[in-house]
Amino acid sequence: MTPPTTPLRGGSVTWACTSGFSPVFIFPFTPGEYYGVANLHEFQTLMYRPLYWYGTGGQPTVDYERSLAEPPVWSEDGRTATITVKPYQWSNGESVNADNVMLWMHLLEAEKDSFGGYTPGFFPDNLTGYEKVAEDRVSFTFDRAYSHNWVLMNQFSTITPLPKAWDRTADDRPADATHDPAQASAVYAYLRACNDERKSWDTSPVWSVVNGPWKLSSYTIDGVSGDAVLVPNESYSGTDKPYLDEFRLVPTGSDTEQYEMLRRGPKALDGVQIGFLPFDEVTEPAEDPLAGGPNPLGEHYDLVPQLTYKIHYFPINFNNPTVSGKIFKQLYFRQALQSCLDSRGAIRDVYKGYGYPTTGPIPALPDSPLLSPAAHGDPYPFDVGAARAFLTENGWDTSTTPGTCVREGTGPGEAGEGIPAGTPLRFSMRYAQGHETLTAVMRKFAADAAKAGIEIVLTEVEASVLVLEDTTCTPGPDSPCLWEFSDWNGGWGYGPGFYPTGEALYSTGSSVNFGSYSDPKADELIARTVVSDDLADLYAYQDYIAQQVPVIWMPNFPFRLLEVAENLKGVTPINPFGLINPEDWHYVGEVL
């Protein structure tokens, strides 16, 4: 019998969020501590469309059909780009126009340090000016000629037009930050306060004004998590209008809870139509992480590896004000620590073949000419003996654990500046709770590090708390900045921008440079990549970063092994930037 293929209208899809991560920030001007997939790609963009949409047909390209703007038109000198906004509408009847872009830009200039996509020295710092040139056009003039691909993918990707209805400083007090930048901070403060009143999101006159295919119908707070229900925006201007009646995002507390929800099946009373298979529930290994292997839930679900363009790592706090921070600044120590991480063993034993190594700042998969030839090797393969040698050759006695500093000083063979004799190699590692696979990797890492003389004390912490507390910080009375190692079971996804130049992750002062890594040579190499389309410059940057180990590279794997109800279609191809389009999803044969 031929399976049904005709798309049906109606029905509801429940999406089980990644354990510990559900939508908790709705204002699409998101600070670094909330700048993640759950808030941005799986929530905000469904309601508030960015200027450009990235990822089309499974490829890392711009989807101009879904974008709010036409392709940029560049001046002859390569410094000025003019963008035409398409004739979309907001749900309150306002037009999406140049003023909406100007309002965003004025907020960005006034409050750039509060925006997770901001990197000092880059957008908007690298503009000499921008202006509305017509009701539907805005021009941007840069301080020099940059790579046009980089500007489109990494700079213009930060812009989300904001409606006139949001240009106010109180519920009953309209403002004009659209035209007067001096009012922007007050408007930002109002919108941020509306965001922080999470219990009223679903009744807010602010967040009800949308231009995407979805609008928020209800939002329920459960501790730090949120249960969100979205319904179609009947005023949506795009041609990709939703088939579904409802899209529901539900939090999960652990991988075990997620699996139990799936095990009950998509037709259960509280059924989940899209969730993810925890790696520890994989029954048979995969030969290809792109295609996946046998599905233990295959009776009701299709297994779809969600391979995104990302790297996996955990940060080290270079700004820790204790002697630990001094140790972290020593390259030999980071080399030793990296050599204690058995990535290939984890891929084989923990991730059941659904993995691939991270050896630097550019993803190994999907394969791309942007990946340096040197990145196909591993500068610091798993080798406890090599880790011990890095330490003993630089002033440490590793005959016991924790090892101790026996040669203080800054000369050859000495431990380095600010590290006194007798200092122990003892550190704390906080990691996200609820992930059996991460726990297994962390325990083995700590055990292997102990063999090299490094004692790592492990503590499980709720993921949403971890990302708020263990982040970019400067020591001070209100910020002790004492965290050391922190692993939220992730890393960085290059989305929605594709060109992986690293200014957000490794430039001095970036808000998502979570470990506060700072290196003048790295800054110089990154600066070259943003003005050049020469791959040699991109290779030089990534090879240097790989050698410097500003973070500890972790085994990579598909973002999730999605379990999709067998009669739910339109989920593939997977967007490589982690964005989702539930407006494309539809049932065949039977509506759930």
UniProtKB/TrEMBL annotation:
InterPro entries: SBP_5, SBP_5_dom. Residues 66-464 form the Solute-binding protein family domain. The keyword Signal applies. Keywords: Signal, Transport. It is found in: Cell envelope. Its main location: other. It holds the Pfam family SBP_bac_5. It comes from the Bacteria. Belongs to the bacterial solute-binding protein 5 family. This is Solute-binding protein family 5 domain-containing protein. It comes from Streptomyces spororaveus.
